[in-house]
Description:
The complex is a heterodimer of chains A (513) and B (227). Chain A is of the alpha+beta class and 513 residues long. In chain A, 55% of the residues lie in helices and 15% in strands. In chain A, strand 1 and strand 2 form a beta hairpin. In chain A, helix 4 runs antiparallel to helix 5, helix 6 packs parallel to helix 7 and helix 7 packs antiparallel against helix 9. Chain B has 227 residues and is α/β, with parallel strands linked by helices. Chain B has two domains: 120 residues, 3-Layer(aba) Sandwich (Rossmann fold); 95 residues, Arc Repressor Mutant, subunit A. Helix content of chain B is 40%, strand content 22%. Chain B contains eight helices and twelve strands. In chain B, the strands form three sheets. In chain B, strands 2-1-3-4-5 form a five-stranded parallel beta sheet, sandwiched between helices. In chain B, strand 11 and strand 12 form a beta hairpin. Chain B starts with a strand and ends in a 5-residue tail after the last strand.
Amino acid sequence: MTGSGEGAAPAAGPAARPEQPGPRRDARPPIPRPRRRFNLLRSAAVRFAAIYAVLLSLSVAAAAGFVWWETAGRLSRQIEEAILNDAQALSDHWEVGGVPDVRSAIEERLSQNVDDDAIYMLADPYFERLAGNLSGWPAAVTQPGVEYEIRVERGGIHSLASMQRFDFPGGYHLLVGRDVTLRLQLTRLLTSALFWAVVVVVAVAAVGAIAVRSLFNRMLASVWATTAAISSGDFSRRVQVTGRGDEFDQVAEAINDMLDRITRLMDGVRQVSNAIAHDLRTPIARARTRLEDAMAHAGTEDELRAAIERATADLDAITGVFQALLRIAEIEAGSRRAAFCVFDAAPVLNGVAELYDAVAEDRGLSIAAAVPPSLRVYGDRDMLQQAVANLVDNAVKFSPPGAAVRIAATQSDGWTDIVVTDAGPGIPAADRERAVERFFRGEAARHTPGAGLGLALVQAVAQLHGGALLLEDAAPGLRAVVRLPAADPATAAPAKAAEAAAATAPYGDVIQD
Amino acid sequence: MRILVVEDDKDVAGFILRGLKEAGHVAEHAATGRDGLFMATSEAFDVIVLDRMLPGGIDGLNILEVLRGQKNAVPVLILSALADVDERVRGLKAGGDDYLPKPFAFSEMLARIEALYRRGKGEGPVTKLTVDDLELDLLSRQVKRAGQKIDLQPREFRLLEYLMRHAGQVVTRTMLLEGVWDYHFDPQTNVIDVHVSRLRQKVDKPFPTPLIHTVRNAGYMLRPDAA
């Protein structure tokens, strides 16, 4: 038996192993649970719930206090007032007719007292009853002008009464009171009603607090889980949107938009670093090959010099690419916005036209600039100059001989459009979105010099200015529009630029990050 | 001329010093900020080439600030691997006269050093520039060569003016872009060459001897033809 038992143990081992919490090497770090560090005092949800409960209780207490004051309190005050009125009236009778008059007044009042709640007693100096509906002077009532609330017996019925003693000249005493049994009942009723109200309020407050807390937690748990997942590297996670369109949804959507943007930026960075790795390897490899080849095979000093010269030119080209990349990065970082000012862009456009005029003419092209005499723009002059120069550079490079490159500018609806049109091969619709990516080289650009950074820079400049770069078909050729917001910095909202671009882009391909 | 080179990179410094000596200048070298500051403040130089980032706690801008604080107006060419626009502006604001980002071609540096030296001399306001038989009148904006009037476009006039102000010196394409067009970036297409060739058509072509010369791997130079 022991033998087979021992034999079975190793067989059970592997079966049991998967249940052991062994180290899982390639599993993602677990997403922390929202309630992991739950602390009742530190929980904002509990705090909010408590505030809710306290506020609810306070408002109910205030309402109850008011009800109490308005009912039981008013009743007490009315009774006291009635007692004093009665005493005053009887005192008047005393002055008119003495004991007999007061006695007849008491009897008359008692006979007219429908509610049967009035209590009177007139007593001689020895507290012997002369008139009234009490059998004897209550021993507890010793001082005049003090309100007593005592049990009395009246016609065989015990009840609670509120009464006061008034003294008349000659040692006579008057006792005026009211039966307050009714008030007592009302007070009891009210007390019990309020007690239950408090119980209900506490219950409602507790339920409400729990609801507030769970609402809070549901929202925060989603945000928490999402952000925690993203911190640990899972960029596909998004905060749940309930679709109710409430404030929580707004927060969730804002967070999701932010995450989308971050993801796009990360993709951009990844794409750029891949492109750098790929596109710079080629010229570096070429320079290296030239140098190594010259070292091994150059027969004469002249050959060696020529090879070194070419390799130096290659390295200069690589430096140029780096400079352009850094410039784009610098513009995208947005740090240069501090140097923005309102300036006249017309001389800038004419200057670019003039700079390229000679080159264009050499290639059998013409440059036509249709720029208004003054073009107020809010931005960075040097950047805009470089952006327009890049567009014109492209236009001149890609246009066939005999064609015209047009530079135009228009201002309307708070937008300034700077348009450069060429008659070259254009950019196929499918490539337009990618044309602004760093290092993108279209089919038509295969055999022209360049690194594929020109349009990326133009786009970076346009976006820094709160505008957009639109690439359109000029049939034939390319129509590149740098759309900038109005010169007034106060009315230029970057968000509006994207909307306007989306509204007017002919192919729906808004060129954005 | 006497030039101080403050540069910590041994290879770069050696390359600059050799080049300057070959060009006929006297070049002194300081490898740290401390040495550079000491030499710059205690000796007289015609031009200082200053690397921005230096070891030893004192960087190029510190040296520049001390020099300018002492009312020392020696022309300073700032050399830096920090190429972005803000750095450039910061260098020029601190009192630098010119800014050359690394990596650079030696010819570019030499041309800029010579231009700085010439500017430092400051021969006062001129109204007329003359090189050989070429005359440029800054007031009437007229150009004559061998007594013959030459019609130039406004930009061609400015280009010629720049070349004449730097007569006998190498002027690089970048210097022309900055000085004549106020462009601070390199256009991909070599637009400058075409402009210079047009100027040549008007200034040199009709005459027996050329004045505008191409300097290989560097740029242009306007000088009387020695040959």
